[in-house]
Amino acid sequence: MEKRVVFQSKWLPYALLAPQIAVTVIFFFWPAAQAVYYSFLVQDAFGTSSQFVWFQNFTELFHDGRYIESFKVTIVFSLLVAVSGLSIALLLATAADRVVRGAMAYKTFLIWPYAVAPAIAGVLWAFLFAPSIGIVTYLLKKMGVDWNWIINDQQAMLLIVIASVWKQISYNFLFFLAGLQSIPRALMEAAAIDGASPTRRFWTIVFPLLSPTTFFLLVVNIVYAFFETFGVIDATTQGGPAAATQVLVYKVYHDGVKGQDLGSSSAQSVILMFIVITLTVIQFRFVEKKVQY
Amino acid sequence: MFRKFILAALALAATSASAQTEIQFWHSMGGALGDKVGELATKFNATQTQYKVVATYKGSYGESMTAAIAAYRAGNAPHILQVFEVGTATMMAAKGAVIPIAKVMKDADEPFNPKVYLPTVAGYYTDSKGNMLSFPFNSSTVVFYVNKDAFKKAGLDGNKPPKTWKEFQAAADKLKAAGQSCVYTSGWPSWMHIENFSAWHNVPIGSKENGMAGLDTEFQINSPLHVRHLTMLTDMAKKGLFTYAGRGNQAEAKFSSGECAMLTSSSGAQANIKRTAKFEWSVNFIPYHDDVKGAPQNSIIGGASLWTMGGKTNNSYKGVAKFFAYLSQPEVQADWHQSTGYVPITQAAYELTRKQGYYEKNPGADIAVKQLTNKPPTANSKGLRFGNFVQGREAIEEEIEGALTGKKEPKAALDEAVRRGNEILRKFEAANKG
């Protein structure tokens, strides 16, 4: 039996596709093409004089120690966000999975932070940890910890990691919980009868069965850390101190919008575009196909 | 919010009905300052019927400049744009995008005499041929604030604050010994400790008259004196005598809350300190190194000026010129100075304010002017003009932070700041040579 819809008209399928294509072209291909074009130019801020310089913007970037540094910062940051975000979410999910009474309430509370806009999350944490007025700063000072991320780069990194992880935990939690609940109870019961401890049951049954979810979340979290933490960083450290928290996507904004260096900024966004493409390919090639139940 | 919207809509409707020529004025004065700018526009509009200045708040300095650049590229630039001092070179190099104030005034036959402005203010916005490029509006400088109560507690005379960095350090030690948790903090690190520091000691910030005489300028902030000063700051930071508070004005809250006893920051902080500080405080000259010949020279300004953007009708430029002429009046300037804390930018406004007895009632309000006019400005102290200085200043601040955290030696940090800064300058030169 033919399941496909067969169009009689020659132009109708194209007409139906047109809006989607138009949206994609206007909001994706066109800006992307512009970014590629600008990445070959050196231009003054007002665009009154510009020169075509081929790959100069790119070569400059890779000779620029600070761009390489920004790469390192991004990798450290992404790993911290992904690993701690996943472990905490998994912990919470296993805990919530076991709760018998009031499970709904716990789940709802754990999902709430996801509804908070990144900038608000950033401002929230920035206030809590503000060097002069933050309540957490005050408590830390009482405990003898000198908290000042304005000048301490590790504390600054810690701050943006905490804020970003907090923001993303709900998402991870949802997927982990769904994953946990799809694990057949019979397997667990059989293992329990065989005398396997809860820890052993977790590592030999639950964790392997969760691996597709974990893999998927790992990619999603890395993408999140790479591209969606802009709001958090802008609201808190703004890339400081001394560029210690300047991740790649923040550097694009920073050099382009604040520094008015469109050429370099475009070159950076073209590089980011390739990273997204690579991550997407990995996601489809490996995560969707190779990780098997 | 909603009421503002209605008012704006009504204003819009009213203007489209009349035959007045609208002058778009984008600025970055938020809060009380924004209300004051609105008041200036309203009062100007009441003086004549031909033009109507519409003042619009467009966010921070950086944001409104970006907005204006985007608008210019799209052919919708405002007539007047308020640009912070570090954006001066970018605006100036944008040929065709801006019109020098001198030309705007001359074309409209409005009286205009650049000599009425304080030399340190006018110098900042004047090219090497002597043409004034933008209209000085809100200027400030770095001053030195002292918590007199904290001084008294430490056995120091609050009425005799330290004049030199040597005295400053001695005072800092005493304050620390008396249990002051934060002794000294500073807002705007590059503006205070590099830019104003250089002018105050009459040493260059960069070649070519601090960049005013050409785009092929290079930074010179790694001189032995600069290294010595940063070393002093770093040592103070190590000993817990200097608390770094960030690149903006965050330090001001640390002072006004009483946490820090000494502060160097913008003269524009006075209004806020007056409102919040629950202790006796004073405004003073920033300290200097007394073994440097010629120090103290004069400090340089910060703040912003008004630029006329190109591509508008000739008639509207007449309105722009009229508005600038209105703003130049001593009464308007004196009022602006007194209600905002920015320095009076003309000699006449300063005199008028003095005659009105304002400085007797508000001791310290004239320190900024006195500092700016301490001596006739030299090539090293009339101001600076570096391309892409938003980025350049940031490179400097990053390196200062590197030194303060102990990651780099002060000398290495300043060498690196010069290297990075020069790279940015070369890029600017390349982008603007066409």
What key attributes describe this structure?
heterodimer, A: 293 residues, mainly alpha, MetI-like fold, 71% helix, B: 434 residues, alpha/beta, D-Maltodextrin-Binding Protein, domain 2, five-stranded mixed beta sheet, 20 helices, 11 strands
Shape of chain A: globular
At the fold tier of CATH, the topology name of chain A is MetI-like fold
Tally the structural domains of chain B. 2
Main sheet overview of chain B: 6 strands, mixed
- Quaternary structure type: heterodimer
User: What is the CATH T-level topology of the largest domain in chain B?
Assistant: D-Maltodextrin-Binding Protein, domain 2
The number of distinct helices of chain B, counting runs of at least 4 residues, comes to 20
The main sheet of chain A orders its strands as 1-2
Q: Which range does the strand content of chain A fall in? A: under 5%
Structural category of chain A: mainly alpha
| Number of helical elements of chain A | 12
What is the H-and-E element order of chain A? HEEHHHHHHHHHHH
Count of DSSP strands of chain A: 2
Low-confidence stretches of chain B: none
Q: Looking at this structure, what is the CATH superfamily of chain A? A: MetI-like
- Terminal Cα span of chain A: 31 Å
Q: How confident is the prediction overall: mean pLDDT of chain A?
A: 85
Give the CATH architecture of chain A: Orthogonal Bundle
| Greatest interface | A-B, 29 and 39 residues
Protein name (chain A): sn-glycerol-3-phosphate transport system permease protein UgpA
Domain ABC transmembrane type-1 (chain A): 71-283
GO biological process, one term (chain A): transmembrane transport
Pfam families (chain A): BPD_transp_1
